[in-house]
Amino acid sequence: MVGALMQRTLIIFKPDCMDQRHVGNVIDRFEQAGFAIIGCKMTLLTPALLREHYAHVADRPFYPHLEAFMGARPVLIMALRGEQVVQRVRDLLGPTDSRKAAKGTIRGDFGTDVTVNVVHASDSEVNAAIELARFFRPGELYDVKS
Ligand code: UDP
Ligand code: MG
Predict the structure, then answer these.
(1) Catalytic residue positions?
(2) Is the pLDDT of residue 132 over 70?
(3) I want to staple 13 with a disulfide (CB 3.0 to 4.6 A). Which of 17, 74, 115, 140 is the partner?
(4) Would the pTM of this model clear 0.85, i.e. be above it?
C-alpha cells in the first residue's frame, strides 16, 4: 500500500487483565483491527525491570503502588505489527484513567482506575523500539508479511 506506515508496538496484559480473563477479548480487538502478533511470552516482572520500564513515573508518589500491582503475578507480553499500530492501539485503549475512558475502548470496558488499566502499550515509535528490545531478543520476534 502506498504510504503505509508499518510499525511494531509492545503490549503488556496487566495483572487485572490476566486475573479477570479479558486477554482473549483484548487480543480479538487487536486482531479485528488488522494487527499481527509477531511475538509473545509470559513473565513475572521484577522490581528492577519495572523501575526501568516505568522510569518516567518512578519518582511519582504512586510508583510503589504501580510496582506492587504490576509485579503481583506473571503477565503476558506481546509484540504487534501493523499499519500505524502504535497510535491505533493507544486509541483502542483509551486514556490512562479507566474511569475517564469511553465505553467501547479497552480501558473503558474492562479497566478499574488510573493504575489498574488492563493493558500497557508503547506511546511512540521510538519508545516501542526501546520497549521491544527490553522484553524480546531479536530472534524472538517473527515479522510477517501483510
Ligand atoms: N499510573 C498510575 N497513576 C497515575 C498515572 C499512571 O498508577 O496517576 C500508572 C498506570 O498504570 C499507567 C502507568 O502508570 O498505565 C504508566 O503511566 P503513563 O502515563 O505512561 O500511562 P499510559 O501510557 O499507560 O497510559
Ligand atoms: Mg505510558
Answers:
(1) 120
(2) yes
(3) 17
(4) yes
Residue 50 domain-assigned (yes or no): yes
Which CATH number is 18's domain given? 3.30.70.141
Ligand 1 residue neighbourhood (C-beta within 6 Å): 54, 57, 62, 66, 96, 114-115, 117, 120, 123
What lies within 8 Å, CB to CB, of 36 at 6+ separation is 80, 81, 82, 144, 146
Tell me which residue has its CA closest to atom 4 in ligand 1: 114
pLDDT, tens digit (0-9, with 9 covering 90-100), for 81-123: 999 999 999 999 999 999 999 999 999 999 999 999 999 999 9
Q: Ligand 1, closest atom to CA 69?
A: 11
List the one residue out of 136, 131, 109, 133 whose CA is nearest residue 120.
131
Residue 26 lies in a domain: yes
Residue range of the domain that includes 73: 6-135
